[in-house]
Each structure stands twice: as structure tokens, then as C-alpha cells.
Amino acid sequence: MMPGGHLATSIILSSAVYASTKSAELAVGCFFGGFLIDVDHYLDYIVFEKQWRRPSPANFLRYYFTHQLTRVVLPLHSLELMSALTVLAFFWPQPFLVGYLIGAAMHLVFDVIVNGDHLLKHRLLFYIFIYRAKKGFAAVELLDVAPVDEQESAPFREFFKWLPGHKKTDAEFSESRNRSPK
């Protein structure tokens, strides 16, 4: 799902949780888990893609939406982290943490459904950090996307789209598989 979709669903979830529980901590946790979990995309951009000289939101979104990334680490998008946080919440059920888990679970379910159809080579395995590590976090090994010309990019408009860009054609997929490191 695109960031704008996560923003909308997180606002709806947080509002519903607050309206039903009157717990600001729980509602804020839902928002953090549902939307701000995506901060790891920016972390990847700055740290692993070494784009610290181009840190602006527009440059980041353009880079991301044109599929220029070469590494996909995404530490917050991992079932291992979610499992560890679930165990922690079982023994230490703080409202913010429980809300974060609810929001992150919603976020990851939408990612699996939407991104699995449009961006990922393996819809469920992608969200296992160890799997991504075994693939060297290489975007070419993990993603099923074709680069898009930067001139065609409108990053802020794309932010609010519901679905990611086009899925690769069979020819594009075959070409990327031939280029992919073995």
C-alpha cells in the first residue's frame, strides 16, 4: 500500500480506537504502528542507499517511487520484531505498545495484500527479516518492479495513490531475473 493509504487507514484506526477507549496512548500507538512504521524506508534511503546528501522528502519519495533502491533492509517491517514486541506486550501491556502492535499489524496486513500483488517476489517471505538478510537485502532479489523514469515521477501525488505503480510485464521480469545476482 502507498504511504497515503497507510496515513488514511491509520487516522481511521486511531480515531476509532480513541472514540471507543478514550485512551490517547493507545490511539497514538495505533498511529505510530500504522503509519510511522514506514520511517524505516527513509532510514534505508539515508543509511543503506547512502543518500544523506539528498535528504529532502521530495528526493526521497522520487527515489523510492521510481524504484531506484538497491537495498531493502526495513527493520521495522519484520515478523521477528513484531513477535518480540508481542511477547513484551504480553508481559508489559502498556497502552502505547499495544496500540503500536495493533497499528503495525494493520499496516503489515495491507502491505502483504497490496504489495504482494504489485511489488514483491514473495508476498509473505519478504516480511521475514532473516529471509531479506539471506538475500543480502538486494532489491533485485526481493522486489518485482521495473525502474521508472524520474521525469515521469510526481512524488507528492504518488504518495496519496492507493496502489503502487505498474507490475512488471513478463519481458521486464525476465530481463530483471537475468540481471539478478545468483
Report on the structure:
This protein has 182 residues and is an all-alpha fold. The protein has one domain (3-179). It has ten helices and no strands. The protein has helices at residues 3-21, 24-34, 39-48, 57-65, 79-91, 95-118, 129-134, 139-142, 155-159, 170-179. α1 (3-21) runs antiparallel to α2. The longest helix has 24 residues, at 95-118. The chain is globular, with a radius of gyration of 17 Å.
Major sheet details:
none
Number of domains: 1
DSSP, total strands? 0
Q: Gap between N and C termini, in Å?
A: 29 Å
Helix content: 55-70%
Low-confidence stretches: 166-174
Strand content: under 5%
How many alpha or pi helices? 10
The helix-strand sequence is HHHHHHHHHH
Give the overall shape: globular
Radius of gyration: 17 Å
Structural class based on helices, strands and sheet pairing: mainly alpha
Mean pLDDT: 87
